[in-house]
Structures are given as C-alpha cells and as structure tokens.
Amino acid sequence: xxxxxxxxxxxxxxxxxxxxxxxxxxxxxxxxxxxxxxxxxxxxxxxxxxxxxxxxxxxxxxxxxxxxxxxxxxxxxxxxxxxxxxxxxxxxxxxxxxxxxxxxxxxxxxxxxxxxxxxxxxxxxxxxxxxxxxxxxxxxxxxxxxxxxxxxxxxxxxxxxxxxxxxxxxxxxxxxxxxxxxxxxxxxxxxxxxxxxxxxxxxxxxxxxxxxxxxxxxxxxxxxxxxxxxxxxxxxxxx
Length: 239
Fold this sequence. Notes:
Elements: H1 3-14, H2 20-32, H3 34-51, H4 63-77, H5 87-101, H6 114-123, E1 129-132, E2 134-135, E3 142-147, E4 154-159, E5 168-176, E6 179-186, E7 194-198, E8 208-217, E9 231-236
Antiparallel strand pairs: 1-3, 2-9, 3-4, 4-7, 5-6, 5-8, 8-9
Helix pairs in contact: 1-2, 1-3, 2-3, 2-6
C-alpha cells in the first residue's frame, strides 16, 4: 500500500481492527514516519478516553470484522487523499457507536505500543542486529538497540531510565559522518519500567556512528546539533 492508504489505516490500527498483514505494513510506516506516529498518538488519546468511559467488557464475537467492513467501505467511497485530523472524530465516533449498540463502550483492545510491536517484529527476524547500550547518568539503565536485517528500521529498548521533572524531557541524538542531529523529544509514563524508542532513520542503520539520549529542558536542547544536559545512554554502532 502507498503512504496515503497506510495513514488512513492508522485509526483502525489504534482500535485493533486490522488483519496481521495490514498491521505489519502500518508498523513499518510508524517506524519511519514522524507524522504517522503523531497521528497514532492523537487517536490513542481518543480511544483511551473511550475506554475509561465505562467498565471494560469483552467485545462480542464478530465486532472486529464488522468494523473492518465499515472501514473498507469508507475507504472505497472516499478514495481521494483527505486531511487527516478532521476524520478523527467521525471514525472514533463510529467505533464508539458500534460499541454502545452492543453494550460495550470500550475499545476492542488496548492499542499496542508501536515501539514494542516493532521490537518484537525485528527480534523475530533472521539476521536482526543487536547493539548494547552504555548507561550514562544512572548506572542501572540498561537495554539494547535492535535493527532489522536490512538496516532500515531500528528500536531502542531501555529499562530503568532516571526520573525526570515536569519541566524536563529526554532527547534522542543521531550521530553520523556529518555530525549530530536531534531524533526527537520523549517522555514516558513510567521511566523506571521498560520503554521503546523508534529511531527515525533517514538511511540504513550502519551508516550511523552512534545514538544517544540526553536529559534536556522541556523544549529540548537550545542547540540543534548537540545536547546541553547529561547523557542518559549511548549506543556505539561503528566504534
């Protein structure tokens, strides 16, 4: 599928209404496309709010298939590219109405963490690459970077990040022959637990020298090419 079609599947991905092949294609897009990840975050906030609206009950048999059919019919009736966010209330509202009609105002399932899903997919591949991380600010921080066999997708799994204040954030850094650039800002509900960061690769992973994570002010480092806060971790690829 092309990018436009995959973006249109993100609402269904958030609701757990894709088949395995569609889900794999969407997860591959999420690994490489920042707009897609932001769109998923928007939908997950809505579906999480729906899930809290009533006590959870098992979704009746056939509900996923019914939602898939409705989504397919909507895509067939509206083949042209559309603005993404205006479609969000309508689609999530449709899902909510389906669930209310069947006596269950809950999402079909808790949406999977796209980073965790991609990590599982990569580690299940033959030829997946692994790189250990070096802790910085806190010695108990541990984990690894895994990269797909073709080097086009990578995820950092990290455990026991240091606690941060409300006015702080984690910032990812990508290092290659051209220098250092930001890979985005991250906050986690439970820094002390296990978390996943999808690395926004612009080229195969073996063309990078290292990745790092620093602790920065809420808006990130004031410099686009270097951190200002302490190093949280570093991953060497081509030492």
